């Protein structure tokens, strides 16, 4: 039984207990941008209920053009207004450099990525960088409530970055 | 009390009951790519436990360059090998066209996005498109186990796209 087959069996149980359909637009008008890290179960960390908030995740929780694309669709088409960013301690993104990563990929594949790997040095600094990128975007209309956090993965606690 | 403050109160309870630290690399060597839709609690839909799998999410669950970036980091630096894609029924991405969206943004802001909004016509077709984009990438090393699904948001059930 593959890992995916095991999760599909779990989905059978989920579907059997499924409470019924919810509306498409996020009920709490919130979009969360978080790192893809396996330890971060965003719904549990925040006590989100299904239907509350869009959840956007990538390597680092970094605000890239794709996150701007998702936030633009989230706010313009689906009515969200608030943004909550989650980076975390013990993040893989501080373990390499963009130049080193691109060089290694080029050595292994012969091709140098045209995209930036988006490594960073410290989590708090990258939360601030991410907030600035959202504020600088002409496409995201609502910027009044943007707050950034670092999740302490040893304690499960969100610490706000001011 | 703002929405975010309310979720921070939830996080206090989460941290108080936190079971303790987990390892950085995903235990089940899986990366999930899913839509940001608020109704999809990926951990519950699949029965994932914290620490099991990377979770990458954006508008549509579409494989963009940023998803390729995240998958490349996931596989090359953190040891994942399997990929599971989740699109879903009643998706906002089928309600507009790329041209229409870009034109509307340009009319409202004066600036035309240089990125593709990535609207699609049908969920199954875009799951197949997303799988093809991963297979075509020179940067993602492990492609043996890539499986794509459409989540029925009325029933909570994952249906595989063959």
From TrEMBL, chains A, B:
What does the record say about how the cofactor binds?
A: Binds 1 zinc ion per subunit.
Q: What EC identifiers does the entry list?
A: 4.2.1.1
**MF terms (GO), sorted A to Z:** carbonate dehydratase activity; zinc ion binding
Q: Which Pfam families match?
A: Pro_CA (PF00484)
The UniProt entry, under Gene3D superfamilies, shows:
Carbonic anhydrase
SMART domains noted in UniProt:
Pro_CA (SM00947)
Q: Which UniProt keywords apply?
A: Metal-binding, Zinc
Concerning InterPro entries, the annotation shows: Carbonic_anhydrase (IPR001765), Carbonic_anhydrase_sf (IPR036874)
Catalytic activity reported: hydrogencarbonate + H(+) = CO2 + H2O
Q: Which cofactor does it need?
A: Zn(2+)
Q: Which residues form a coiled coil?
A: none
Q: Which residues bind Zn(2+)?
A: 35, 37, 88, 91
| Homology family | Belongs to the beta-class carbonic anhydrase family.
Its annotated function is as follows: Catalyzes the reversible hydration of carbon dioxide to form bicarbonate.
Q: Which PANTHER family match?
A: CARBON DISULFIDE HYDROLASE (PTHR43175:SF3), CARBONIC ANHYDRASE (PTHR43175)
| Name of this chain's protein | carbonic anhydrase
List the taxonomic lineage: Bacteria, Bacillati, Actinomycetota, Actinomycetes, Kitasatosporales
